[in-house]
């Protein structure tokens, strides 16, 4: 087994009862799968607050980790030389590569992970892979081929821009871009599913009804424009002898959007709706009931916010056949005619005429990210006629639908079950370590960029050069008046915390009184 890097953790990474999204679900699943895979081995966690990992003890133990646990701060890169790597659960390798350069880039690998790619900040992170000291022994894990295509397009474009401005140059080193799905506790989900009939009874659904399931957030701006999905369901409902129900399981974005969705549902008199969720996250038990009660999972997304599709993995793990958009990472999960059906998608004719204007509106802060994401979705069309025919075939041929569901479940167990994904991580970490070992020795680490050394950057603000202080027995912070010490203690602690080691802290603590004595 390869030597594993430290995993960066933060409270914002994990699932919460409010503001729940795919990134937080992915963060929780990653931590649990990581801890389970390491078992009795040492587990290294990195956090801005080195004390925070101690709060994860119960989660780690429940996931199956029984080895030693070590917490590390993030101000200085030097401790990670002995560990061999740092796993960052976002794409910002560029910034962290500058941080690492202080101790030499060849000493450890940086591994990042993409999530949403259509924000200005995400694009900046991708572009920094060209301009910052990222190395071939680093990696940015892409959860789908569609996501990797976006990353490569940004890198190609940024390199072209750099050549236009500075002339031909040797192409910069790129990180590895492996495609590895997000980890999901597939087997645990399968074991938690209730009986289909019991689930329908608990949810108040008729035993003989046809039931479709939407699983995930309901957001007009950052998930899907639901009208196309509703139109397909209404058209199908008119052709079925039995009732057609749609379970919508997941949180809403806002009260105005809830009102808008209710108005849209009123335009579909032949579809029965069951809303699970709203302002709060749906309990796991209720989600499992919805998964067990459904006949088909439907997800006709049209939004660039989507990259992978965690909800699809859960629905396929539950054995549901899929009716989803042929869009982004969805096509890496659902195999056409095997696990379900992919509904063709396209950009509208002349959609490009608004493309740059929308991007600049976000870049300049003239419009919010959700507003731009929702506007872009208005330029995407789905083949609703094809979707109608596909859904009818799934509902009218239960044996075919069940066979597709079995295929999807097997694929998720083989590809997305947490421990399967961790084995691919293990292979990746071993490959990166081998690339590091083969790298040419580097010269002394460069000094930090002057913008990241404010004392050096602003050295000429002072009228006198730095001079060694004279030894003075009264040079002690304790000699200062209480009111001075109490008011400045948080600032002194911040300064001392920024020092690399104990010797540096001791020296600076001796110098601090010079300001006041």
Low-confidence runs of at least 5 consecutive residues: none
Number of helices: 21
Mean pLDDT: 90
Helicity range: 40-55%
Strand order of the largest sheet: 3-2-1-4-5-6
| Category from helices, strands and their pairing | alpha/beta
What does the radius of gyration come to? 27 Å
Number of strands: 14
Strand fraction band? 5-15%
Categorize the overall geometry: elongated
**N→C terminal distance:** 57 Å
Largest sheet: 6 strands, parallel
List the helices and strands and how they pair.
Blueprint: E1 6-8, H1 22-38, E2 43-46, H2 57-63, E3 69-72, H3 80-83, E4 85-87, H4 93-100, E5 109-113, H5 120-131, E6 139-141, H6 145-166, H7 186-192, H8 196-203, E7 210-215, H9 226-237, E8 244-251, H10 255-265, E9 271-278, H11 284-293, E10 296-299, H12 310-317, E11 322-325, H13 330-333, E12 340-343, E13 345-347, H14 352-363, H15 369-377, E14 380-382, H16 384-396, H17 398-415, H18 418-438, H19 454-457, H20 482-497, H21 502-511
Parallel strand pairs: 1-2, 1-4, 2-3, 4-5, 5-6, 7-8, 7-10, 8-9, 10-11, 11-12
Antiparallel strand pairs: 13-14
């Amino acid at each position: 087994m390869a030597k594993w890097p430290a995993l960066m953790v933060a409270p914002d990474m994990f699932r919460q009862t409010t503001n729940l999204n795919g990134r937080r679900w992915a963060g929780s699943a990653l931590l649990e799968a990581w801890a389970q895979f390491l078992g009795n081995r040492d587990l290294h966690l990195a956090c801005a607050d080195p004390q925070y990992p101690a709060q994860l003890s119960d989660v780690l133990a429940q996931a199956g980790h029984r080895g030693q646990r070590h917490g590390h701060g993030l101000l200085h890169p030097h401790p990670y030389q002995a560990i061999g790597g740092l796993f960052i659960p976002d794409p910002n390798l560029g910034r962290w590569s500058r941080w690492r350069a202080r101790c030499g880039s060849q000493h450890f690998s940086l591994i990042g992970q993409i999530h949403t790619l259509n924000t200005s900040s995400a694009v900046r992170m991708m572009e920094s892979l060209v301009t910052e000291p990222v190395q071939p022994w680093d990696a940015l894990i892409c959860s789908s081929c569609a996501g990797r295509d976006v990353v490569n397009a940004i890198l190609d474009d940024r390199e072209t821009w750099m050549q236009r401005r500075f002339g031909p140059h040797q192409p910069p080193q790129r990180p590895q871009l492996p495609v590895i799905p997000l980890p999901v506790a597939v087997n645990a989900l399968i074991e938690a599913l209730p009986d289909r009939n019991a689930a329908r009874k608990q949810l108040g659904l008729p035993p003989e009804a046809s039931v479709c399931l939407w699983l995930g957030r309901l957001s007009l701006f950052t998930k899907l424009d639901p009208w196309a999905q509703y139109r397909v369901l209404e058209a199908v409902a008119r052709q079925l002898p039995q009732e057609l129900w749609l379970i919508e399981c997941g949180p809403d974005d806002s009260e105005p959007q809830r009102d808008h969705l209710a108005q849209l549902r009123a335009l579909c008199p032949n579809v029965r709706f069951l809303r699970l969720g709203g302002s709060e996250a749906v309990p796991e038990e209720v989600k499992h009931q919805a998964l067990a009660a459904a006949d088909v999972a439907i997800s006709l997304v049209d939004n660039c916010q989507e990259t992978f599709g965690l909800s699809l993995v859960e629905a396929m793990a539950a054995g549901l056949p899929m009716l989803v958009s042929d869009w982004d990472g969805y096509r890496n999960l659902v195999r056409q005619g095997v696990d379900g059906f992919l509904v063709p998608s396209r950009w509208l004719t002349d959609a490009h005429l608004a493309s740059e204007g929308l991007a600049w509106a976000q870049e300049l802060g003239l419009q919010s990210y959700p507003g731009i994401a929702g506007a872009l979705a208005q330029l995407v069309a789905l083949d609703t006629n094809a979707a109608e025919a596909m859904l009818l075939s799934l509902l009218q041929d239960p044996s075919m639908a069940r066979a597709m569901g079995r295929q999807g479940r097997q694929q998720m167990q083989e590809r997305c079950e947490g421990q399967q994904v961790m084995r691919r991580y293990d292979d990746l970490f071993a490959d990166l370590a081998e690339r590091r070992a083969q790298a040419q020795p580097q010269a002394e680490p460069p000094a930090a960029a002057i913008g990241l050394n404010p004392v050096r950057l602003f050295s000429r603000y002072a009228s006198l050069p730095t001079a060694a202080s004279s030894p003075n027995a009264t040079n002690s912070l304790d000699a200062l008046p209480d009111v001075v010490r109490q008011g400045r203690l948080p600032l002194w602690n911040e300064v001392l915390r920024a020092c690399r080691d104990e010797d540096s802290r001791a020296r600076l603590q001796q110098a601090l009184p010079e300001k006041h004595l």
